Amino acid sequence: MPPENMPAIGYSGRPGEVRERLDGATLVVSNPSNIRWLTGFGGSLGWVVIGPDVFTLVTDGRYRDRAEGEFAEHGIDADVVAPRTRAEVRDAVVLATMGASAVRAEADHLTHSAWSDLAGDLPLEPDGATIATLRRIKDAGEVARMTWAAEIADAALAEIAPRLGDGLTEADVRDELEHRMRRLGADGPSYATIVGTGPANAARPHHETGRRRIVEGDTVIIDVGALVDGYHSDMTRSFVVGAPSAEQQEWYELVRIAQSAGLAAVAPGVTTGQLDAACRDVLRQAGVADFFVHGTGHGVGLDIHEDPFAAAGGTMVLLEGDVVTVEPGLYRDGFGGFRIEDLVAVTASGGRPLTHLPKDSPCLPSPPTT
Amino acid sequence: MPPENMPAIGYSGRPGEVRERLDGATLVVSNPSNIRWLTGFGGSLGWVVIGPDVFTLVTDGRYRDRAEGEFAEHGIDADVVAPRTRAEVRDAVVLATMGASAVRAEADHLTHSAWSDLAGDLPLEPDGATIATLRRIKDAGEVARMTWAAEIADAALAEIAPRLGDGLTEADVRDELEHRMRRLGADGPSYATIVGTGPANAARPHHETGRRRIVEGDTVIIDVGALVDGYHSDMTRSFVVGAPSAEQQEWYELVRIAQSAGLAAVAPGVTTGQLDAACRDVLRQAGVADFFVHGTGHGVGLDIHEDPFAAAGGTMVLLEGDVVTVEPGLYRDGFGGFRIEDLVAVTASGGRPLTHLPKDSPCLPSPPTT
């Protein structure tokens, strides 16, 4: 159940922050995560129009009560317009922009059809990343929810990992993890839990969890997170079932050292390319960088993948308030793979991990003592 | 576990069907459900280019093995191009369209940014609904998977419904249902299970399942489905905890009769407006149509909501092979609500329900005898 005294999320200042960045323009917000960040409204259908003199949610009639309740709860002073038909919703969005000197919309989110439909009546320009940029900086209420989500995933995996040698299938492990996370207070899994096992499945970074039964000698990658109040956590741990071979032990150590180097590199002012290089250089020096086939990490918040993305050559600068993953891995078909990932808050003094499950050894842990 | 002798899905004929409808044009497919229908590839990142002389999947390098394996399994003879960077993916899509007389893309799916990016190099035109139209007609393999998904949801709810009076919360019911569906063989829930209870929450058709504890006298709406091989099921049952009041009994009966009328109306050649009217007219004659605040149903398949959508005035014609929901409901704040929904295959001889859980009474059922 939720920790006591969880701080509130600071919704009330956000409309002002957005208006300041818009510099007189009006923004049509359609991305549900951006709407949730700006207003606290968590429904899946809605548009927000925000400008110098307007702050209006246009949503389906079925969501009116919910929106008004959530606005009251979060101290948001926005109008709610809730027509019944799709055509009326579209017209209400256009109406809310009337008199605006410039109108921007989220070209990275709106479909081309929806954009074209609005652009017939509005001088629509693509918005940069107004809200995505603001969303990067998590406040205390947001970090508290992500911390709790991370603790839930920690606890669930601590319970299941000791049983990986008990003849379970990948799907069994996923199902138990997701069920336990909910019993521990999560609203659900943060994303489709990845359980990749054995020489083929663990060699795929984005394996779709299947029905394979785990056997002695397998490498096992478990990528799991919890969802709390719309906020995500993200963690990966890797294991060997039974006694690790020399090669398994060596590759695990390389991933562990690379990940530690990445964690140590996290700080405000560091570029995403530098963060990526911190991990990748360890693997390059060991001659295995070709088996690290993805980027080092990404931001996490209301979306499981959001800015900043950390890949080779990245130029985005980490900011105090970012929450990012650090997740190098090695994969080889016929061998399997390992990935180690923590969720890390970027603070003035460096990276502060939110995930805490031990990762010093690939051997299966003992059951938690309760 | 899967029923024996489940028929295969007929992927191999689909490229030909699409080409026939394109009439010489080339189509860039970006909607993952359309890609899955056309090729069997279930990864989340990819583009398919299909034209008179081209059939190419462009995907992220991490998905190459999976794509080639799924193509071999499904008898799909398409090229796989798997570059590593996003810019290379985009260039590969453009390259695959070279020489095409006309290029169409899915304007209802592509973001405006992605569309604009491609349109700089290609004479891009919006595709109508080429694949969405073909996807409506489910083959024997698809119906078999949806039938199994429906049976899984039936069985899970049959186990949980008897316990609704045992002091559970909405989240408890959701968690148990989703866990049981997976134990019964589902890949996961078909959508976020809705458990709406009591005077306020059951009065919201799209209630987000929360932590409210169910008490005597509540109306309870449970909207639950299972996912199997990418195919969805969809079902709603409603209950009263304890002895129903006269008004609860009356409203339940009205919804039940309206839903039966809808089921009886399902047949090839019937319009979506006629299907909607079959339900709505029952409620109108009883003077409660204002409390039926949504459409009567929608198609189901690789998407949980797809064509044909049945609402008042709808003009789309039901076809043999469609699989649709029939789901009238009544909702009133302070009272709660009821909705009854079945998943129905449209056959030459009328509607054949795939969901079978009893719905003749709002009283909690007895536990299944096993």
Summarize the structure.
By secondary structure, chain A is of the alpha+beta class.
Key features of this structure:
19 strands; Creatine Amidinohydrolase; six-stranded mixed beta sheet; three-stranded antiparallel beta sheet; alpha+beta; 370 residues; 21% strand; 2 domains; Creatine Amidinohydrolase, Chain A, domain 1; homodimer
Which helices and strands appear, and what pairs or packs with what?
The structure is a homodimer of 370-residue chains.
Chain A: H1 14-22, E1 26-29, H2 32-39, E2 47-51, E3 54-58, H3 64-74, E4 79-81, H4 86-96, E5 103-105, H5 112-119, E6 124-126, H6 130-135, H7 140-160, H8 170-183, E7 188-189, E8 194-197, H9 198-201, E9 219-224, E10 226-228, E11 231-232, E12 235-240, H10 246-265, H11 272-285, E13 297-299, E14 306-310, E15 323-326, E16 329-332, E17 336-339, E18 342-347, E19 350-353
Parallel strand pairs in A: 1-5, 3-4, 5-6
Antiparallel strand pairs in A: 1-2, 2-3, 7-10, 8-9, 9-12, 10-11, 13-14, 15-18, 16-17, 18-19
CATH architecture of the largest domain in chain A: Alpha-Beta Complex
* Rg calculated over all Cα atoms of chain A: 23 Å
CATH topological fold name of the largest domain in chain A: Creatine Amidinohydrolase
* Distance separating the two termini of chain A: 17 Å
* Sheet with most strands of chain A: 6 strands, mixed
Structure description:
The structure is a homodimer of 370-residue chains. In chain A, helix 7 packs across helix 8 (170-183) and helix 10 (246-265) runs antiparallel to helix 11. Chain A has helices at residues 14-22, 32-39, 64-74, 86-96, 112-119, 130-135, 140-160, 170-183, 198-201, 246-265, 272-285, and strands at residues 26-29, 47-51, 54-58, 79-81, 103-105, 124-126, 188-189, 194-197, 219-224, 226-228, 231-232, 235-240, 297-299, 306-310, 323-326, 329-332, 336-339, 342-347, 350-353. In chain A, the strands form 6 sheets. Chain A has a 6-stranded mixed sheet with strand order 4-3-2-1-5-6, with helices on both faces. A 3-stranded antiparallel sheet of chain A has the order 7-10-11. The two termini of chain A are 17 Å apart. Chain A folds into 2 domains: 11-135, Creatinase/prolidase N-terminal domain (Creatine Amidinohydrolase, Chain A, domain 1, 3-Layer(aba) Sandwich), CATH 3.40.350; 140-353, Creatine Amidinohydrolase (Alpha-Beta Complex), CATH 3.90.230. The first copy, chain A, is α+β, with helices and mostly antiparallel strands and 370 residues long.
